[in-house]
User: What shape does this take?
Amino acid sequence: MSIFATEFPARPDINKARFTAAAIAWIRGIKASRVLEEFDAKELYHDDAWLETNAGEALALKSYEHNSISAFGVRLEIPDDMGRKWRTECVYSRFADAAFLRIRGQCFAVEPHAVLETPKKPYFISQSIEDNWTASDGKLQIQSTPHYLQTNALSLAQAILTGHATEFLPCIYVSRNNDNSLPLDPNRLAKKIAGLGHIVVEPDRGFSFELMNASNRENPYAGAIGIFAPSGKQLSRLFRKADDRSGYKLETLCAFSVNSFMSGLAAKRGWEWQQIQEEQSRLLRGQISSESTDSFNEYIDYVDAELKAKDEQIENLKTLLEIAKASSSNETMDSSDLLPIALAKVIGRELYEGEFSDRLRFIIKQMAVLQNLDVDERTSAFAQEFVKSTNFTGRAASLIVQIKAASKDGNEMPKRLGALLSAMGYSKTQEGKHLKFKAPSDLFGMADEVLPSTPSDSQRGGKNRGGDIIRHLGLSNLRGN
Assistant: This one.
């Protein structure tokens, strides 16, 4: 993919002078741009400006103001030394009290063998957010910081999952790990995808269980990241890998997912650059009431530009069609999950997302090494190839680490390990000097766990209880290899 695009609501009080000043400030901050200082060709009109350098860099500014509609746009094209041209278009359009920003970038070839790349997010987006140009996208404000849910925000979380929270941008829902930690740095990710999506962080692990009951287990949980389109469709469900301690790789995957989604969409309510050109032509056509040569020649120039704009629109639509085809044939999913999420939900609740996939792989792995199993050679060979071609999710290993950490200090073990069991859905009761943790009915095959109600006298006692729980949950067989 060689395009970048996004669109979001903006304040309706941005005028032409303010937009032009912001555009100039943005261009001055681009190190590769020289057009403002070194242009050698220009055309300046009240609604149109064009500058170009000998090197081929071009800057265009357009405006359209008629009745209740105002639109201002800037287009910057910068060639590089690899046979490519980088085009960025930023358009602000206002219709009465509703306004929108549409930003689009494209890398295209000017030489036959140029290698195209996807443009990065233009700084104009971050600049607009910093300058407080943005408005609310449904229930969420567009911002460069995360939305931290409160414990009473269950209805908002449900709205994200059902497609009633936003209109333009997708939501990245960040669930808590069993120990209430986060799988990534939401502040760092929020800055990275500002203007492309909303970061929504759940308040605590207990909130996951409330949302699970309210959403028929549609929610991400236990450190999973769910990316939801404004329609409520889940675009991706992602997890931090064992070798991604900082969560940076996970953040990169999240950013790629929302970038791909937004770049594959046509403009929703805001105008594209080409639409400004079309409306300029229509307005001039209506204003020509005489056969004056100057007006007629100006009109012909606008018609030529409008035809060129329509050609660009056709190319843009072709590109969007290619992206849509690629997306439909390559739905984002975690390759380590063997069972579809819908099927796993039918079976029951998982300790962690992908648990049933891990157990299925373990069963088939055991089958592949058993010598006296009464199966045909084809089935036996299939089992061996299946094991070679798949991997454990690695999330069992993460849960083992959490259990061991909670059991490390014998004095703190009852509190920390008890909190971890409660986060998994176990219910707690007091029985004499012990705490009994009963597994929920939908976590089938689980034994009840018993912990002392007072701190243990020995460090070893804590570690032993942690090891018992790991064994009861059957996690050691699922952690890898």
